[in-house]
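HUMAN: You are asked to prepare a plain-text protein record giving the amino acid sequence and the backbone structure tokens, both parts labelled.

ASSISTANT:
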Amino acid sequence: MKRSDKREIKAGCCGFRMSQSEYAARFLVVEVQQTFYQPPQVKTLERWRAEAPPDFEFTLKAWQLITHEARSPTYRRLKRELTEVEKSEAGSFRPTPIVREAWEVTLACAEALQAERVLFQCPSSFTPTREHVRDLREFFTQVVPPRRKLVCLWEPRGSWPEELVRDLCGELDLTHVVDPFAARTMTPGRCYYRLHGRTGWRYQYEDDELAELITMLPAKGVSYVLFNNVRMLDDAARFQKMAQEEREDEE
């Protein structure tokens, strides 16, 4: 993908939070959440793509069967019935049939949405053990290729050493996803920020915080800022307006 010499900031929400047509009239990007819990049918996603404006962008979360083990509470929203073997082999990027199948389903969802970015959000239980690092490497070198145009986004949780994250992102061509008010990205040249609320989901961002957020983004290229808090629509709209006003001032 070509990198722009100009700064472009794409703001939006993790989930539509309103009708899709209303949302697409206000923002240029959405991060689809349904693909994480239980992916919709491909024909449903193709309809979403067809009904959205041509310049509207979908990103999506990879199916939880890739990243989260079956003991995760997020599996309560899983409609697919797993066998006992599949339950024991799901998650943590393990080299198992169920993880590979989950990737194929995720890839089909990305193709239906014509999405170029897929987010792999990990639970805090996915720690930087030797086994986890090994399976992460194998997944992104053996299972995912060929990626076509896909940009793989990785959001680790917990105590991952910065140097290890930086090295893995460089080696595996991953974009490091963070909440910039909680951690710094190890891939500062290509930002994908997820704002979860500084004190939790019910948090609403102040204008000065949104202004500070703009300064955390690179001066060139496309950056993504996705809000995932209770006031995400309002915060994303205010942030988008600030970013547009700054761009107009620079021009």
